[in-house]
Write a structure and sequence with these properties.
Helix content is 33%, strand content 29%. By secondary structure, it is an alpha/beta fold.
Amino acid sequence: MPSSQSRSRWSPPTQGIKLNVDGAYLPNESEGGVEGILRNTQGHALAAFANHVSFVNSAKHIELLAIKAALEWLSQQGYKEGHIETDCKVVVLDLRVANFSDMEYANLIDDIHRIQQMG
């Protein structure tokens, strides 16, 4: 499950890997981007990704898309486990809700949960 990064200094994972993700969008253009950087326990960058995204309608939407992209990317890179960190606490809280079927972006939240279960 992704966690939220507070405004404090970044810290490396205590074990394994950590993928920090972020999303940004242009509200007037409905476009944005998602990105992530993968680091090890020493804080060294191992890999990174960045993708353009169309048809974005909110900051919450792009942050959820960033987490989904991160999970898919980790799987494509062959990682079975990893810690994903985002700066969007609202999204992290939404992902922790057990009954999300009536929530905004329920289908996207469901996609994220299914990808996590496959890993």
